[in-house]
Amino acid sequence: METKQVIVVRKDLKWVGWGKLMAQVAHASMAAAITNNLDDKDKIKWSFYPTTGIRNWLNNAFTKICVWADDEEHLLKIYNQAKDAGIPCSLIQDNGRTVFKGVPTYTTVGVGPDEISKIDKITGGLRLI
User: Fold this and answer.
1) Domain of residue 91, residue span
2) Euclidean distance between CA atoms 7 and 27, whole angstroms
């Protein structure tokens, strides 16, 4: 099984520095790989038993691709599609302590790792960063 992970970044956060965005990308990648989707109370369910897709990804190429989402609404739509499809995913919300001036802000979504064909149904049409 070929696997990958896609990190989706909000394009409308143009004024945010690359360092901040890179940190958010790292958060999304890790969170999607080591947690399961959020439960009904929006609390993270930690996964110490990775799915077959995650194990395959960790044991092989660790393929990661970064793509753009237009805005927060688009980012949330992608997250919900991945969650509904049963793909490991994460929604990262910056706490707002630095560049977001006290406003918690959704920045990135990690989709996968999982089978390429499953992920491409959700992120395949998004523009590469």
Assistant:
1) 3-123
2) 10
Query: Would you say residue 47 lies in a domain?
Result: yes
Does 128 map to a domain? no
Could you read off the pLDDT of 21-69 as tens digits, one per residue? 999 999 999 888 887 554 444 555 555 566 777 778 888 888 999 999 9
Q: Judge whether 96 and 105 are in contact, CB under 8 Å.
A: yes
Question: In a 10 Å sphere around its CB, with 0-12 CB exposed, 13-18 middle and 19+ buried, how is residue 117 labelled?
Answer: exposed
